[in-house]
Design brief:
This protein has one domain. The chain has 14 helices and no strands. The chain starts with a helix and ends in a 12-residue tail after the last helix. 46% of the residues are buried.
Length: 335
């Protein structure tokens, strides 16, 4: 097997692992419906940072080699791709349920592929990945887009059939999910660019660095929410801080998300990003969409309708098409 083929298979496997881990975060707001989204976001990444601290001790030499610019990049990635992204996503899920925001997040393979190709178009320098040819990328994007449209249609039918449905609340959830899409369009592209520019860096070290960089801001956010509840919340504090009404479930789920969805998911994604073109890696975020949809439907206790199954099949077909699309030749590096 050629090295390129090995990289493709390994990168796809790591992207699948990241998707399975990240899909978990879509059901946690449903398991903790009484917890506000800012608290869920701050607590999740507080747990991520605490998980990263002992790992940082083992990686202290590699972390010590990171420059100030590297730490600024890790902080920016942590703020946008961690705190802001999950704030938008958790708020969207609590207002619209999991399937609608999941499918809006499912547009990421299309959005990231297009934005990544546009960013790389006419670039003066090249990475080892190059770009995917538009004529081979368009059929894949069309299949993924059709799959997302089918699942959206199934969810809208279910929504209109429910007399208790709050359309305004669902609409607000959709808008918040679009904010999450914007955050996670920027994050994987910028993260992959950093990894490609620092090919000698360990993806594990970079995942740990993002956790460490996010920890102070997450702790600040958690503390600010606590103070707001005590002093500034309307009607005084009505939320049992620091861990809420179901403290055992809350702490357990936050630690699980910190270890599995945040650190391990980021590690798997970093490994995939170093092995795959950014355009292709962006499409493989479809694994997160499929995992989240499966988890949400299982939690709802219902079998997916035919349109949802057909949409999922089209999503998988689009990814399969993307995997066989050859890269455009990369321009020569300047002397």
């Amino acid at each position: 097997m050629s090295p390129a083929r090995k990289n493709l298979l390994a990168g796809t496997g790591f992207a699948l692992g990241a998707g399975l881990m990240w899909g978990l975060v879509f059901v946690v707001p449903l398991l903790l419906p009484q917890y506000p989204a800012p608290l869920l976001s701050a607590a999740r990444y507080l747990a991520f940072g605490l998980v990263a601290l002992p790992l940082a001790w083992f990686d202290r030499r590699a972390l010590g080699a990171l420059t100030r610019a590297d730490w600024r990049a890790a902080l920016a990635l942590g703020v946008v791709g961690n705190l802001l992204y999950y704030l938008f996503l958790a708020a969207a899920i609590q207002r619209a349920g999991a399937p609608l925001p999941t499918m809006l997040i499912g547009t990421l393979p299309v959005v990231i592929a297009v934005v990544s190709n546009l960013r790389q178009r006419g670039a003066a320098t090249a990475t080892h990945a190059g770009r995917l040819r538009w004529r081979r990328l368009v059929p894949s994007l069309a299949l993924i887009g059709a799959g997302i449209a089918l699942v959206h249609h199934a969810e809208l039918l279910r929504l209109h059939a429910d007399p208790a449905a709050d359309l305004e609340r669902y609409g607000l959830g959709a808008l918040l999910a679009l904010g999450a899409v914007a955050c996670w369009t920027w994050y994987p592209i910028r993260n992959a660019e950093w990894l490609r520019a620092h090919a000698g860096r360990s993806p594990r070290t970079w995942a740990t660095a993002q956790g460490v960089a996010t920890l102070p801001l997450a702790a600040l956010g958690f503390g600010a929410f606590w103070l707001w509840q005590v002093a500034g919340a309307p009607g005084g504090s009505s939320f049992a801080m620091p861990f809420g009404p179901t403290s055992g479930r809350f702490v357990g789920l936050m630690l699980a998300m910190g270890l599995l969805a945040s650190w391990l998911g980021t590690l798997c994604w970093n490994e995939a990003s170093q092995r795959l073109p950014t355009t292709l890696a962006g499409q493989l975020i479809v694994f997160e969409t499929l995992a989240a949809l499966a988890y949400a439907l299982a939690l709802r206790g219902q079998a997916p309708p035919a349109a949802t199954l057909a949409g999922a099949a089209l999503l998988v077909a689009g990814v399969a098409w993307a995997l066989r699309a050859p890269q455009a030749p990369a321009p020569a590096m300047p002397a």
